[in-house]
Fold these 2 entries.
Entry 1:
Amino acid sequence: MRRHRGGFTLLEMMIVIAIIGIVLGVSVALFGIMMKGEAARKGGILVQQAVAETKQWAAKQHRYYFLVFSEEGKEGWMEIHEDKNNDGIYQGDQDPKTPDADKALDGYAIQLPRFVQFENAPKFVGFSPSGYLSFAPGFSEVQASTFDAVHNGSNPKPVGDIVIKIEHREFRMCLDLDKASGKVRRSHFLGEP
């Protein structure tokens, strides 16, 4: 009489290990996709915080301040600039010896997450001491009604005053700015189809 031993055969162990490997592979791929979308959301949060912080600087110092954005398609960053002559006109900081040059605040460069960049953004937004927001000249502001209509429609597209995207992906964070309050009025996340 043969005695039956408990345990698994080598074939059974190999099947279980293969199933675990497949499940882990799919989980890692899905986690990677989910995390890329989170980078766009985090970028949107960073923009909202930078808008609020720039507005606070303007109110606290009773001066004009600007939130300057990196160019589209390049590494995403923002800087807070002080309007040195307090005229409300962004001159840039190319020549610090010029009295009209607007100085970037030390320690107030904000980096977006890796692979996150601006798809649509003005060169800068300005904040008056009273908190009113203004866009760079020539920038076409998206109206709140258009923002709502597009994002609540059946086929939403990336529309907003500021649109952040993940490089080589279809994840986007769309932000609508309110001139009167100087805040991000609403935001909408668009994922991959």
Entry 2:
Amino acid sequence: MSIVRKARFGTAPASPRNQAARRQQGIGLIELVVFIVVVAIAVSGILAVMSSTTAASADPVVRKQLVAVAEGLLEEIVAQPFTWCDPDDANFLSAAGPGDCAISAEGIGPETGETRSGPSFFDNVNDYQGFAMNGIRGPDGSAVAGLGDLSATVAVSQDGASFGLAAAAALKIDVTVTGRGEVYVLTGYRFRHSPNAGG
């Protein structure tokens, strides 16, 4: 009886050690360069976002300071009387129109010698027309710490017509605060609702 053997040609099966070596060959130069480029783009994008976020995070502090100054000044202005006559006038509480004033009717702008910090003080809303200060100061003229680099201006104008009233029935007050690369404008209105009460 003869035995027939079939011969196989080709490579011998790889040993387990050779198979592991082939699997651990690593990455090539091209793959490494592509990886570095992708990581660099991702990191630069993240840094750009962080940079803009950090730069913008300082803005709310500056904006809050400007808003606080504008609100404080507007509140001070609207708390003043809005009357036909100057509060120094004898008919201050009884005048029903500008013709009833003993001396002269209030006009837009301060009377001669009146200032915000005295000795003759602003005593009517319209006296603040044209008021400006470089470096924020309190009503007594004292500088407010940390706000010396801000400035504020006030514009007061008759604006009753915007509400279907006589022009002199309402005043529009624009307070503009500027500084640290920001400008903030706050607008308020004062109506002549009770002129004989001084308010």
